[in-house]
Protein 1
Amino acid sequence: MKIIVGVKRVLDYNVKARVKADKSGIELANVKMSMNPFDEIAVEEALRIKEAGNADEVIAVSIGSSQSQETIRTALAMGADRGILIETDELLEPLAIAKLFKHLVEKEEPGLVVLGKQAIDDDANQTGQMLSALTGMSQATFASKVEFDGDHLKVTREVDAGLESIKVAMPAIVTADLRLNEPRYAKLPNIMKAKKKPLEVIAVADTGVDVSSGLSVVEVNEPPKREAGVIVKSVAELVDKLRNEAKVI
Amino acid sequence: MSTLVLVEHEDGEIRPATFSVIAAAAKIGGDVDLLVAGSDASGVAQKAAAIAGVNKVMLADNAAYAHELAENLSALVVKHAGGYSHILFAATAAGKNVMPRVAALLDVSGISDIIEVKSEDTFVRPIYAGNALATVKSSDAVKVVGVRTTAFDAVAEEGGSASVETVDAGDISDKVSFVGQELSQSDRPELTSADIVVSGGRGMQSGENFSMLDDIAGKLNAAVGASRAAVDAGFVPNEYQVGQTGKVVAPDLYLAVGISGAIQHLAGMKDSKVIVAINKDEEAPIFQVADYGLVADLFDALPELSAALDS
């Protein structure tokens, strides 16, 4: 069985996003970019499934600019077998991304697709669900545990009130939540080896997929700033302020 | 123009999130219809029909809808989506699971987590953990939208008199089944709708120490939350997590105890009316958003606070 794992190149999670002066988007020139944290968890899970003998090959896929090759190399250094980049300089909506993944699913016929539950830049939380709807593959989102049960997966999911588990038929799409696993670090020899692993680059135009979107960004703004508050000296003063000034208790 | 809202419910009660989604639907304008899917859900449909401003309630009663499985719910919504210009979901775990499927099945872009309705086709949503607000415009025939419930005031639960109409179930998937759930039991108010939230972070040092927060929460009728660090350290279960990847809260009072204030946490609570931080590190970023800050060891401050609340 093959596993496809999706990896997105995003602004590093430690970097505070700054809105461009012309309000067209976020400043991404000369800032640190990294693999989306949820995707690192997805890669780790795919590797663990392979190491447990439940898969033969892990294919890391990214859709984005040519620099996304670095993100794929990171996945290869963690242990993925080969990479595919669908190259585009446009920022695509999750629907277009899901359609491009569907194109690869039809070509590679994986038993499992593992994605992060959301990207920390657009915060959409949509791609996995859309891919499931488009392909008819089973959907198991916000996974914190994945267990194999014959030709089914038992997936524990993080829901608002706690945890729930569902059983889905394979082939399936799993989206990873934070607590699914602790991703490994790529070691230097593996980073060197990753440079020799195959990485196929496909232009969006060659996929034949329609990536047009009905959604456009009008502008991007800074959120309203909170005024700096006061430092109180004691618990008594704090309680007094909350009771008599803010009147919230 | 008309809007369809998927009603979320459990144990015969409509979840509070739904009342906020209906408020967002009212801002869009036009008729607001509700879809109730469930097993033995006619009681829920009656309650839905009583909500102020609702035009019509569709009820799909089928055992397959008992556990909000996305495959079944999305097929149902799409089956009854004809004629609607907008389809709205709460941006809850259940809503996020279903909304993108409905969008993909209708071949339109989903719009996640809106916090403002500018017009029938233009919405505002936070991106980059709330560090920027994107105004997006949709030219799709149907707008499929997730609503951040803390951004819209709930509509009245009573005052409406809509009709209830029974509708057919959609396709039921045999590829997915519900196995079980582990819900955490709490007497406290629900985190996302509580007026006061008391949250602990890594500074709490252990799960046992969260009893100090429970004590204070009890006195304030508050919900208890946590930072990702506290959840990852195993102090409390994940459903306590407030942040970009947990729950988003906007209570009247948010009390952050032993929380440094990482970007991911601030994304989940910075729209709270009053923020209080108790932290021994005066450099902690949480103090930059706190209305009231107390630089102190939480193990001294919490017992004092508990005593002060008794007086």
Protein 2
Amino acid sequence: MSLIHLVILSPFLLAILVPFAHKYFKSIHTGWFVFVLPLFLFIYFLQFLSTTMNGETYTSTMKWIPSIGIDFAVYLDGLGLLFALLITGIGALVVLYSIYYLSKEKEALNTFYVYLLMFMGAMLGVVLSDNLLVMYSFWELTSISSFLLISYWYHREKSRYGAQKSMLITVFGGLAMLAGIILLYLMTGSFSIRENIANVDVITSHELFVPALLLFLLGAFTKSAQFPFHIWLPDAMEAPTPVSAYLHSATMVKAGIYLVARMSPVFAGAPEWFWLVSGFGIVTLFWGSFSAVKQTDLKAILAFSTVSQLGLIMSLLGIGSAAAHYDYIGENAYTIATLAAVFHLINHATFKGSLFMVVGIVDHETGTRDIRKLGGLMNLMPITFTLAIIGAFSMAGLPPFNGFLSKEMFFTGMLQALEIGAWNMETLGMIFPVLAWVASVFTFIYSMVLVFKTFTGKYQPEKLDKKPHEAPIGMLIPPIILASLVVIFGFFPMLLKGVIEPALYSILPSNVLSVEVKIYHWHGFNTELFMTIGVILVGVLLYLTVAKWGKIYDWFPQRLTLNKLYDGGLVALDRGSSAFTRLPMTGFIRDYLVMIFGFMIILLGALLFFTDAFNVNLTNVAPVGIYEVILAVVMVISAVTILFVKSRLAAIIALGAVGYSMSLFFVLFRAPDLALTQLVIETVSVALFLLCFYHLPELSKKMDKLRFKVTNFIISLGVGLIVIFIGLSVNSSKLFESISSYFEAASYKEAGGKNMVNVILVDFRGFDTLFEIAVLTIAAFGIYAMIKLRLADKKGGVKGESK
Amino acid sequence: MEIIMTIVAGVLIACATYLILSKSILRIIVGTGLLAHGAHLLLLTMGGLKRGMAPLLGQEAEAYTDPLPQALILTAIVISFGVTSFFLVLAYRAYQELKTDDMDKLRGNENHE
């Protein structure tokens, strides 16, 4: 247990104290107590910058379950540190924002901050754990806390729906990832990420390589909302805005990105990895930006925008993985893509966080997020408008903001992908730059929609619930900080060199010796610049004519959307499992018995005949006696009679006949005690039957259907035959002598009794008898209770009676 | 002899199965009684039906029948009697409360409202 473990677990510890703070300091907003922690953690993590800049890493291990190799091992390198700084920095800003966003009187603040802290700790655990299983535990904790945060306003149906959806999808992916982790363990015998990276040769040549890769990617794609798993993210917008800003823009949705980046050194050399990561990323980028344009809700626009930007980062990571495929030849051909990915990851966290906060402010001040009702807020909320401009222009990739820089590098990376001389890139590679360019156009359009539809145009006060005015200063500080970062990183991108470079070393394979981070505004007149100019020109043109071409969204069949598929799938699963359950679970006892007996016949019959167990051996049998044969005939006749009699009395008497023949058999086969017991018991049983007889109804006169009878006949014939076959086979293959010679010898000598059966019952095997007595006692008590206790419910019916 | 007895036990168990699969409670209980008889007979048969004396040491015999299966059967008889009597009273009470002995009408309601 070192300081860094305490740091990771500190949010959980504080979460325990939050309810007390909420209860005993009613006058102070609970958020202030929480705000201190991420701030301190941010400062704490800043100290590690000097460590990682020198290419060093920090490790510390705490034993958890050493016997199976699970230790809480913390490994802090460039990538982990970058994420830790994002989580704590944006976390502090979000907490500050939420202090002003959530009202002290109306909201249940204690639960909110407990969930938020739980999420923060879990997220820190994900990015700093070296042990894959510990990482997975934290991964699921993020899913759970996200679920809780989305359904924060649990009285709304939509919140619950969104929370359930995100839970199902992300936990599905998380479990897939767990399977991938186990496969990795099978390959290398280690849960440690670093040891797995060291054993990359073993992994790539292993047959489980591709399944493990697919499972890991499932985990990453579901968490990072890649196509087609992106559907949970727009529905997660039902959460309070601080949650959307924190979880669904800056941190949790980047956990999948983190996973892909972290596992890159393990999987990157394979074409499957490249095609899946890049392909899904680029499709997600296009689909997210295309869908964002048609949204009318500000948060939905931002949600789809997040989806598309995550796709962008993902596709860049995929192309960057090509660096692992080629031996290092002295030029940073493919590292630029990874650099762009890391840089855009930081940029996206800054501008998307601020945009969410801006939208939250608009929502807070006007009471709506619907762009059809909004407009003309420019003069009323000038600061918010400025922040929105900065964020949206950065998102659209316009100079001088940081989004422009990462967009340029993105185009560079995509164009360089064409030069990968492998994996069918010569032919299929054109997809990347083309899709990237089209998606950028759409990105430009929705960014413009976001700003100008909200802040310019006609002011419609009649549609708004409140009279809008500028937000309180506390609410503005966090987005101002983020927007300032957008501008600062835009003008001085080299400030980030110290963060990005170590992160690149973590992602890139070890054969890349040196990475030079150079981010400039001006690259001269090259293809990327013309692509950007094209994006702006076409984007402006399309934005102005959106009314004309917007109809294409209506062409898309409503029945085929992914949400419909998901909802339909859930319903179908529900119905399917109900139908499947109803198939065997009819509620009729007889059906269950038919299944049980049928299964028994099939299983035992198959065993008997496939293992050649059936044999009849007549050498060791006792001679047939005339009395026994007569008695056997009597017994069979009385047993079969029971089946055909119409009256109850005859059935009971026939059963009695079988019982008395049994005791006669016991006489013939030299079992006096059994004969006695059987006689007495049979008499008592028949008496009991006759006692109940008076109260029970007549056997039904109704004839059963033929099918019913035939089924019963076949089943009972099968059971009888199986019993006979097994009995004969057992009799024919005596394996060893009985142990009864011992009872003969010891019965008198040791136990002092001459009746061997009785001596066995009370001496050699007295335990059986004790509990047999218990059985009788329980039966007696049970019968007494049934007769005496009349527990009817208040309605007069019997409990459990079907209405 | 064992072969005949095994077949008799098989017939008993087949009849018992047929009764257990029927709809009326009384027939089902009769079936369980029959099933118990079949099982006891099978136990006895499997122990071997060698002609020896009854397992009483006072008889000074050359050979005795095997006492162990007899002890087992004795235990089983008592237990099956307890279960059968319990079932019978259960059936009687069920009929008193629910006014039917038809298993199909006693079908449980799967959808708990």
